[in-house]
Design goal:
about 20% helix; alpha+beta; 5-stranded mixed beta sheet; 4-stranded antiparallel beta sheet
Amino acid sequence: MKRTACLIVANILAFTGVSLSDVRIPRALVSDHLLPTFEKIQPAGKLVLLANRACDVFERTGQYWVKQSGQMEVINADGTSAGSATSKGGSSQTGLLPSPNGALFTNADRTIHEFGFKDGKFQLLRDIDLPSGSFPNGMTWLRNGKTFLVCLSKRNLVVVVDYASGQIVKQYKTDAAPYQVLVVNGKAVVSCQGGRIAGPQETRAKTVETEIPVDDEGRASGGVVDAIDLTSGDRTICEVGLQPGPMLYLAKSKRLVVANANDDTLDFIDCDSFRSVSQFETTIDERLPFGSMPNGLACAADESTLYVSLAGNNAVEVVDLNAPGGPTAKGFIPTAWYPSALAVTGNTLAVVDTQGVGSRQLKRGMDAGRNTWDITGALQLVANVPSIDLESMTRVAKASARLREMISANELAGAQVPPVPVPAKVGDPSLFNHVLYVIKENRTYDQVFGDIKTGDGDARLCTFGEKVTPNQHALARRFTLLDNYYCSGVCSADGHAWAIEGNVTPYLAQEFGQGARSYDYGTDPITYSSSGFLWDQVLAQHKTFRNFGELDFPTLPDGWKLADVWRAYEKGNKTEFGQRVDIERLRRHTSREYPGWEMAIPDVLRMDRFLTEFHTWERRGTMPNLVIVYLPQDHTAGTNPGYPTPSSYVADNDLALGRLVDALSHSTFWKDTVVFSNEDDPQNGYDHIDGHRSTCVVASPYTKRRVTVSDFYNQDSVLHTILRIFGCPAMNQKVAIAPLMTNCFSEEADMSPYNALDPDVDRKKLNPPLSALRGEPRRLAIASARQNLRHPDSADVRQDDAMNRALWSSVKGGAAYPTEFAGAHGKGLRRKGLRLDGGKPALGGDRD
C-alpha cells in the first residue's frame, strides 16, 4: 500500500477569467484556467456552474439532483435550473438519496432535509431531526423501502430511520467516522474514514471525541470497512487503505470497490469472505508521489468500466474492469477543479466538481464584496463517454496536471556539482545547512507592503505600513521583495495544513467550510495527509529539527488574563504555561518553554524564549537543520475591547521577527542559514491584486539584495524549496508542481548582519471600551468580541469580513472600507500573467 499523502486543492483562489453576475452559465468548454497550485483546468464536456461547493449527485428522469454546501438544486439536461432550495445547516461531506417525494439531504449538523416539488415549486418539504452533534453523512434504503440507513459521523453510529415518521428505530455501532453505507448480502457495509476505534494498548489520538490508532507521525494509521449484521448487530471488519470513503457494489463479481482518498488506492473486497482481495493504485502516472486522491466512483451499467474521480489531478480515471490482468487504467478525462462525485446514466458521465472554477461567486451585494469562501462549483456532463477520444483527453488531462513538471521535480542528482543555494536536482548539494521557517497569521501583501514603491502595491490599502512593521519593510528592501506570492489556504484550519504538509486531505477540505464535525487546526489525526509533515521528510534524511510553537496549544495559569501575562513579563518573572502538542513525534522535538497559539501572550515573550535556546546553540556551536518558529500575533483580536489594538499586535509581531533575524545574522550560523517567513493564510483580506496575495520574506547571505522578484510563488513553493535544500524529494504532487524559489538567490554571499528596528507605535496600547464607542466602531468592536480566540481564525465567513473591517477602521478611521478589493476579486491577476483565457471572455462573462 502506498503510504504517501492525499491532496485536494483546498486553496480557494482561482486564477480565472470568470466574472459572474449569473452563475447559471452553461458552456461546452472552458478556456484554460491556472490554479494557484500551478495546474490548469480544461474540463471536457458541458460545464454548468453552481452557486456553491458541490459534493454529491444523482440522476432521475433526465434531471440531475446536486447537493451543494447550503443548497439543493435540480438541473435539467440542457444545463438550466429546474429549482433550488437552501439548507440553513450547510451540507456534510456526502449524503444524497432519492426519495419517493424528491431527495433526502444530510446537513452538516443534525438534520436530514427532504427536498422536492410541491405545487409546481421546488422547496424544502420537511426536516428529520437526528441526535445533537451527529454530522450525518451517507444514506441508503433498506429493502423494505420504508426505512433507510444513515451514517452519524461524530457518533460512530449507523441508524435506521423510519421514512414516514422520521423516527430512529434502531442503531448500530461502527468504527470511527462512518462516511458511506450500502446494503450488501443483507448487511450494512460502512466505510469508516478514521479506521478502527483504538484498543487499550495502542498509540492513540482523538478525532473529535473518539480515540483511534495513530502512527508515530500522528496520522490515522488505517481505514476500515465494517459489515454489520442487521439482525444481530454483529460487526466484521475489513482493513483497507487510508481515509476510505465512496463505495460501489459490483453485483456480477460480488465485489465491493472502496476508494481510499488518503492512499491513492482502491480496495476490491470479496463480499462472501469480506476480505480485500486486490488493490488498485489510482494515479495519473505511476512515477508520481502521492496526490491523485480517489474520492468518487461510478460504473457503467454492464460493469465493464469503472470511473474514478481523482481530485488531486482534476481528472476522472477510466478503468477497464475486464482486462485480462485485472483492472487496468484506460485513460483520463479532464475535469474542473476538484471532482468529488460521479453518476453514469446511459452514455453520459456526470461529474460534480466541488471547487469548479474557484471563488468567482457573488452571493451578496457588492457593498459586501467577494469572499474567499465563495466557491463556484460545477456540474460537468460528458456525453457519449464510451466513444470519446480518450487518448486525446488523456493528453489534455496529463498536461493540465503538469505531469512533466511533477516527474522532473523529483529527478535525483547525477554527476557531482558545486553547491548552490537551491540545487537543481534532489540530492545535489546546497550552500545552506540550516533553514529557519517562520509561520505567522493572516496578512495580505497590500496590508503590509502596499507602501513599498518598488513592488506592485497599493498604498491606499496599506494598513500596517513601515511605521508599524519597520523590520518587515527593512528585510523586504534589503533582501528580495516578493510581490507575486500567494497563500493556498483560506483560514487556519487548512492554512496550517498547506504551510506544513503542502496539501489538505479530502476529509478536511470537504468539511472545514462548515466546521460542524471539527474546526481543526492540527488536532484531528484524520485530517493529516499520508505524505506527512515537513519535519518528517527532514528527519528521514537524518537531519535535526526543533519546533517553537507550531501545533502547540498552551494554557494560561488559572485565572490569568492578558494583563497578567504582560505584567509578569515586564517584571521579568517567568510564567509557566501549560502545553498540549497532540502529535507525538512533534512533541519530542518541541520546546517546552515556547508557547504556541494564545492571543494573551506577546510575540516578544516568545522571542525571548527562542533566543534563550538559540544562545545555547551558539555556545555549543551546533544548530538544528530545520527550525520552525510560530509567531501568531499579527492575527490580532480586531477591536475587541481590552485587547491590544491591531497595530499594537502587528508591531509586536514585527519586532519579534526583526530580533530573530538580528540574532541569527550576528551569529556564526548566518553563513549557511536561510530564513523563510510567511503567513498561513490571508483571512479574506483586501489587496488590489487579489485577497490571497500575501507576504513572504526570504533572508540569508545568498538572498538577492535590493531587488523585486515577481515570479509566481505560493506556500508549496516554500516547502518545495526547503525540501530541495535538504536533499528531500517533493513529498506530494502539489509540492512537486510548485515553482522552486531559485530566483530569490545569488551564489555570491553578502554577510552583512541585520539590526532590528523598533516599531514607532505603542505595542501595549489597548482597544477602547465599548462605552467610548459609537456607530460603526462600536458595532465592529462587538463583532470582534464575538470572535472565538481559542482557535486562530473563524469558520464563519461573516466574522472574516468583520475582522478585516475592524482592522481597517482601527487604522483608517471613517475612510470607506475598500470592499471592491476584499477577498477573491482577482482584479489584478491578468497583468500578473495568471489568467490564461486566450484573450477571450471566459464562461461568457466579462474579461475583467
